[in-house]
């Protein structure tokens, strides 16, 4: 695993310290991130995402999904009755876990479904109207408007055959 030094970014970028902190925390989190349970993150449409986690052996009531600010936490606690069993070989992991995901701004959890041992969490990026790009029409300045009005009135009087004095 590579370690990146973000100290030059801290020295030369003003106002981007939040981005540098996120990159730095992601780098540290990758080194300490457990690999259980396995998961996929897929793009299902424009601004739509799905996290699929393999949580075989867990019941719906044992799985907890929580969103706090821009953090999605999926956790599960396996009951203690499983520990009373004596296994000759245990290849199916049935341990408690906690998996955290950093969500981008304006990404919201839409739904969560559990079927066939897979937990599907659907996400969507919903950008507020105030932040969407908008087109600004280009209008005439006040002097341009006045010139247009004078020109049109002179042309109208010329067609009518009248004499007009423009001030």
Written overview of the protein:
The chain has 3 helices and 7 strands. It is an alpha+beta fold. A hairpin with a 2-residue loop joins strand 6 (107-115) and strand 7 (118-125). The protein has 2 domains: 1-33; 37-129, Immunoglobulin-like, CATH 2.60.40.790. Pfam families: HSP20.
What is the topological layout?
Elements: H1 7-12, H2 17-32, E1 39-45, E2 48-54, E3 63-68, E4 71-76, E5 97-102, E6 107-115, E7 118-125, H3 142-160
Antiparallel strand pairs: 1-2, 2-7, 3-4, 4-5, 6-7
Q: What is the radius of gyration?
A: 31 Å
Average pLDDT number: 76
The major sheet is characterized as: 4 strands, antiparallel
Q: What is the CATH topology assignment of the largest domain?
A: Immunoglobulin-like
Helix content: 10-25%
Low-confidence stretches: none
Strand order of the largest sheet: 1-2-7-6
CATH architecture of the largest domain: Sandwich
Decide which structural class fits the backbone: alpha+beta
Run of helices and strands: HHEEEEEEEH
Strand content: 25-35%
The number of strands is 7
Keywords: Stress response
Family: Belongs to the small heat shock protein (HSP20) family.
Organism: Cellvibrio zantedeschiae
Protein name: Heat-shock protein Hsp20
In short:
With 167 residues, this protein is an alpha+beta fold. 25% of the residues lie in helices and 29% in strands.
Keyphrases for this structure?
HSP20-like_chaperone, Immunoglobulin-like, 167 residues, ACD_IbpA/B, alpha+beta, 7 strands, A-crystallin/Hsp20_dom
């Amino acid at each position: 695993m590579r370690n990146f030094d973000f100290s030059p970014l801290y020295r030369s970028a003003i106002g981007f310290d939040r981005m540098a902190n996120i990159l730095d925390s992601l780098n540290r989190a990758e080194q300490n991130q457990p690999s259980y349970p396995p998961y996929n993150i897929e793009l299902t449409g424009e601004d739509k995402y799905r996290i699929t986690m393999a949580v075989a052996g867990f019941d719906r009531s044992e799985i907890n999904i929580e969103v706090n600010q821009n953090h999605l936490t999926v956790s599960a606690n396996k009951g203690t009755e499983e520990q009373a069993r004596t296994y000759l070989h245990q290849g199916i992991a049935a341990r408690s876990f906690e998996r955290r995901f950093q969500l981008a701004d304006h990404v919201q959890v839409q739904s969560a479904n559990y079927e066939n041992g897979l937990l599907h969490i659907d996400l969507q990026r919903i950008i507020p109207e105030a932040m969407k790009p908008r087109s600004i029409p280009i209008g005439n300045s006040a002097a341009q408007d006045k010139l247009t009005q004078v020109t049109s009135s002179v042309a109208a009087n010329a067609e009518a055959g009248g004499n007009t004095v423009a001030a």
